Structures are given as structure tokens and as C-alpha cells.
């Protein structure tokens, strides 16, 4: 256990305990909420809850369990597709159920672990458990990811993603029919105020822009092509849910579970179809494409026939 005994600085007077303690201690909000739930935060003799307020100059008696660091485990993923491989990059077609890299609480396979198990050497830049990773896909989202193998590739690709120079095209099957059929969603995304693992459109969030176009419309939903201008966590899922057209199967963000069951979906209908960028070694523009995996293809075919 770690412990601290300190005073609340004037700048945090009146802030919620969860956000104020995260700033004060430099811990993640998840770690602070765990500490508060465990009764590890006492202010002037009173145990704090996460919505309680800090008071300037009050004394805090804090104790918490140190954060468990994620650990890279080399685990084979037989259905991880290798789309392209050279000295600078490896492009993979990630199946659903595989995370981009290890993280606290995730016990399943990862792209980084699968590449290690297959003997790939990736860039050493970045945190130990996510070396070579320049962008991510949700564990439940399938499709294309590029991982840097060389240090120059890591630097160049990180800059390209930051500067919005990478083409990121997704297909998503959503509930209902967006109106208009083609449009742009420009709405900031941040952590959900009351659900720890979810995100939402919130005024204090980060700038996020999603462009969409309806490709096909069915009685029970629509197939969209989506281009991301930014790359926020859960961006497509959050924006489509806020637009009242959640991805089919995405029950975390409000999709109808009965529809998901009827279509045989156990995850969101969302696939990273196309990835284009300037190759960090040759400087030439490269574009990679993917096809729908079996579960999404089957659900879409059923949707078309209903």
C-alpha cells in the first residue's frame, strides 16, 4: 500500500473528490475511484465518496494499492492476418476479441503479443507494453492496424496520425437511417460522467470529427462508410450513439440487444476497412484494404434479407 498525508491546496477547493484527487496525486481516475470505493480517502476524519467535495486546507489521509502495470505476454493469435510486412512496418488485419496492446484488466490476446509470438521485432519506442503501436482499435472492432517496426517508422507514423494525414475508413452497420444520409458529426468526446469504462459527447471533451455516408439502407438499419478526421477512443461508437444510430450489436452504447441476438452479433458491427498513409521508408503513398469477417458478413446478409 502507498499512503500520503497532505492538505488540500486552495486551487482544488470545491472539486469532486475523484477528479480532485486524480489531479493532486497524478493517478488515473480509475485508480482514484478504486481508492475511494475502498474507503482509502479520509478528509478531516470523514471518509470521502467520489462525489464528495474537497475543502481547501483540509487534511487528507490517503492510502491506495499501487497500480498494477500491464505486462506483455507473447500469445499466438492464429487468425491475425498479416496484410503487409517490410523493414519499417507490419500491417495486420485484427480479429475481434484481440486488443491492440496489454492494459490493466485485459486478460485476452493482443496484437503486440501476437506479433512477438510470431517472431516480429517492432520499434522499441513507446511504453514497454505498447512498443511500436501508433494507433489502436477497440478489442471488439476488427480490421486494419499498422505497427511500426523501425524507430523512423514510429516517429513518422505518430506524427502522421497526430497531423491527420492518415486515411482511416471504417464500415459500420447502424440502427435506423441517419438523417441526412451523408453528414459530419462534430462533437467533443470525453469520459462518461457516470460510467467508468464508457465515453460520451461532453462539453469538456476533446475535439472529435466523424464523416459518414450511407452506402445501403435496409428495413432494420443502414450500412455506413465512415471516415475519421480525429481518433478519439470509441469515437465512431460514441458519435453514432449520440446521433441516435448506435452500431448494431453495440449494447454498451445503447444498441437493441434483441436485434443483436437476432443477427448473431456479440460485438459492435464496426470494421476498419481501409488504411492509407505515406510509407515512412519510401515516402510513397500506400493504401491497404480489408474485407468483412464472417460474423459481420453473416449479420449484414441477414439484415439485407429482412
Automatic annotation (TrEMBL):
Pfam families: PseudoU_synth_2 (PF00849)
Active site: 138
Chain segments annotated as coiled-coil in the UniProt record: none
Ranges where the Pseudouridine synthase RsuA/RluA-like domain occurs: 88-242
Catalytic activity: a uridine in RNA = a pseudouridine in RNA
Assigned EC number: 5.4.99.-
Gene Ontology terms describing biological process: enzyme-directed rRNA pseudouridine synthesis
GO molecular function: catalytic activity, acting on RNA; pseudouridine synthase activity; RNA binding
UniProt keywords, alphabetically: Isomerase
SUPFAM superfamilies the UniProt entry points to: Pseudouridine synthase (SSF55120)
Database matches in InterPro entries: PsdUridine_synth_cat_dom_sf, PsdUridine_synth_RluA-like_CS, PsdUridine_synth_RluC/D, PsdUridine_synth_RsuA/RluA, RluA_PseudoU_synthase
NCBIfam families xrefs: rluA_subfam
Family the UniProt entry places it in: Belongs to the pseudouridine synthase RluA family.
Record function comment: Responsible for synthesis of pseudouridine from uracil.
Protein name: Pseudouridine synthase
Organism expressing this protein natively: Agrococcus jenensis
Lineage, broadest ranks: Bacteria, Bacillati, Actinomycetota, Actinomycetes, Micrococcales
